[in-house]
Design brief:
The complex is a heterodimer. Chain A is α+β, with helices and mostly antiparallel strands. Chain A is built from four helices and ten strands, in the order E-H-E-H-E-E-H-E-E-E-E-H-E-E. Chain A is 16% helix and 43% strand. The termini of chain A are close together. By secondary structure, chain B is an alpha+beta fold. Classes of the chains: A alpha+beta, B alpha+beta.
Chain lengths: 143, 101
């Protein structure tokens, strides 16, 4: 079972963050390739494992950098009233897990600053075993 | 009595637009979907409609099939894949954590 183990200085402050690579899904890469169009390379982002998120989210800024086109819209509840966010299909590569391609993600508008550009939600966690050992600042994710 | 002329003008609070972060084309296609007859929605409950320019291009049983169809027909373009009957589903996220840098 492929797993990733991470240890940080202060997981309470930083959260369970791991680097992931996101990019254009294979189904769209094929179309771009047939038309000899440039395919934006994958981007490394910091992803926070967020058991409070029902779905995986990505920063709209990252979608823009990848020149992704939205494939839908979804109603999302954040801090205030429900809002609609664009839905994208992306490719995601996490550690030694291999790629999830395509995966449908949501891109709610930005609120907070910070270095987290992706929230790994319960849609991905539904396929995983997630262990959070707060007293040793360690977590593991197996898929 | 306070001098009214010295009271700064207060901003008029408008209800926020829930579609503010969705582009006009997507908003139009989604609103087109919302306006489809209830009977059509009942017939296609749970299926995935591919919609573009306020037209239903195809309805498929599986999301991946709908995505493959849409990309095959429309290429690397914007479109709406909507699961019929799930328009009121609310997704939750810890949005305040998501940054842009």
């Amino acid at each position: 079972m492929p797993s990733v183990f991470r240890q940080t200085q202060n997981m309470q402050a930083e959260g369970a963050i791991l680097p992931v690579s996101v990019g254009v899904p294979e189904i769209v890469r094929r179309v771009l390739s047939q038309k000899s169009q440039a395919i934006p390379g994958p981007i490394e982002v910091h992803a926070l494992i967020d058991t409070g998120a029902s779905c995986t989210c990505i920063s709209p800024d990252v979608c823009q950098k990848l020149n992704l086109k939205p494939h839908g819209t979804a109603k999302m509840l954040t801090a205030g009233d429900p809002i609609y966010a664009h839905v994208y299909n992306i490719y995601m590569h996490m550690g030694n897990f291999g790629a999830i391609d395509p995966i449908t993600v949501f891109a709610p508008p930005l609120v907070g600053p910070g270095n987290v550009q992706c929230l790994i939600g319960r849609d991905i966690l539904a396929m995983c075993a997630f262990t959070y050992l707060g007293y040793v600042n360690t977590f593991s994710l197996s898929i | 009595m306070a001098d009214r002329a010295n009271i700064p003008e207060q901003p008029i609070l408008k209800p926020s637009d829930p579609f503010a972060s969705v582009n006009e084309e997507m908003k139009a296609d989604f609103q087109f979907y919302l306006g489809l007859p209830d009977e059509w929605k009942k017939e296609n409950q749970g299926k995935f409609a591919v919609i573009k320019n306020k037209k239903v291009l195809k309805v498929l049983a599986d999301y991946r099939d709908a995505l493959a169809y849409a990309v095959e027909q429309l290429g690397d373009d914007q479109f709406l894949i909507q699961q019929v009957g799930t328009e009121d589903t609310v997704h939750y996220t810890t949005q305040a954590l998501l940054g842009g840098r």
